[in-house]
Amino acid sequence: MWAYSEAGNGRNVCTLVVNGTLFFLTVIPSTLCPFYVLVFDGCRKDSITDGGLDGCGSDCMTGVPVQVVSPRHSFCGVAEHTVSSLFNHDSTVYLCDSCLCTSGHAGHLQKHLQRCSNAFWIPGDEIYRDEERQFCVFVLDGRKAQCAAMARRICYLSKLFLIDKVTLDDVHFFSFNALFEVDDEGFHFVGYFSKEWTSSSSCMNTLSCVMVLPPFRSKGYGSLLVRLSYAIARVEGIVGTPERPLSKSGNALFRKVWREEVLFAVFALEERGTPITVGELSKVSSLIVEDVLVALQDLDVLFSVGRQGPLLVVNTSEKRKLLQRRLPAEMLYWTSAPS
């Protein structure tokens, strides 16, 4: 059963009842950026918490359901009771996907989109670009004022999906590597990974948090961000691991990337004619030895003992297919971490 009504803030609302459940179809007209969003009466909890992460953090989330509406997408998240005030206790939040400012009213978002200063400019340095897939990655230094504001908004948005792994105040301790899709209308935030500027001498963390917004999780951006973190670690000469604990979905994501990175290291060592040992795999891949061993176990490889120590025997029939998935080095613009 359909019903049509006029709503405030320039919105037209259609209601639909399906099997006793009430849905709202909100139509927000705009000559600048028209979009049509299905907003229903409170997100069902199981649709929010099941597989909600693409990286580090907890898989169990409880709190206030929040519907996020951007010019191109609509998706659900959960605001903890301790941070629900950040979203003004509204069940629907309107998000600018360029600067990540939020509003409780669609009309306010429409006015903001006409003057958003980040639509075609992102603070920070561009470190990666893929012109074929039309996306790029910027590093935001949380210690710099022009970057800190956007970094903090990334943290606010991430709180809808990550509980344990997101800081709201201490952004100056981290760099935020934010991925944006690019089109004729400007930059559109997809996800990010963060990394501490300094780590302990006993263990270097290549990554602290990684998050991809729900509408983009079928595009492989999560694994791309993790691979990018290891590519940066190799440029810096760091052997490290992601910050623990890992969520269930995060663990699956990292183990997939570890397997690929270890195989890339095998191919590189073969080309050099270097004996393939666990230590060499760790150096070439920038994975710590423990993560290399996890990857080898997942690959179900065969070890034999020779004069050079433990040697690795791997079926390389998938070598060409794997190499096509490796990040092209020429697309990474990174020298070393700033002091």
Explained architecture:
The chain has 339 residues and is of the alpha+beta class. The protein has 2 domains: 2-38 and 252-325, no CATH class; 64-245, Aminopeptidase (3-Layer(aba) Sandwich). The protein is built from 8 helices and 17 strands. The strands form 5 sheets. Strands 9-10-11-12-14 form a 5-stranded antiparallel sheet, with helices on both faces. It has a 4-stranded antiparallel sheet with strand order 1-2-3-4, with no helix packed on it. A hairpin with a 5-residue loop joins strand 1 (2-6) and strand 2. Helix 4 crosses helix 5 (248-272) and helix 5 packs across helix 7 (289-299). Residues 1-54 have low confidence and may be disordered. Keywords: Acetylation, Membrane, Transferase, Transmembrane, Transmembrane helix. Belongs to the MYST (SAS/MOZ) family. It is an enzyme of class 2 (transferase). One of its GO terms (biological process) is regulation of transcription by RNA polymerase II.
Fill in the keyword field for this structure:
single chain; 339 residues; alpha+beta; Aminopeptidase; 2 domains; five-stranded antiparallel sheet; four-stranded antiparallel sheet; elongated; disordered N terminus; MYST_HAT; transferase
Number of domains: 2
> Level of helix content?
25-40%
- Report the biggest beta sheet as strand number plus sense, adding barrel if it closes: 5 strands, antiparallel
Question: Uncertain segments of ≥5 residues (pLDDT<50)?
Answer: 1-54
The number of strands is 17
Q: Proportion of β residues?
A: 25-35%
Radius of gyration: 22 Å
Shape: elongated
The count of helical stretches stands at 8
The SSE order reads: EEEEHEEEEHEEHEEEEHEHHHEEH
Major beta sheet, strand line-up: 9-10-11-12-14
What's the CATH H-level superfamily name of the largest domain?
Gcn5-related N-acetyltransferase (GNAT)
| Oligomeric composition of the shown chains | single chain
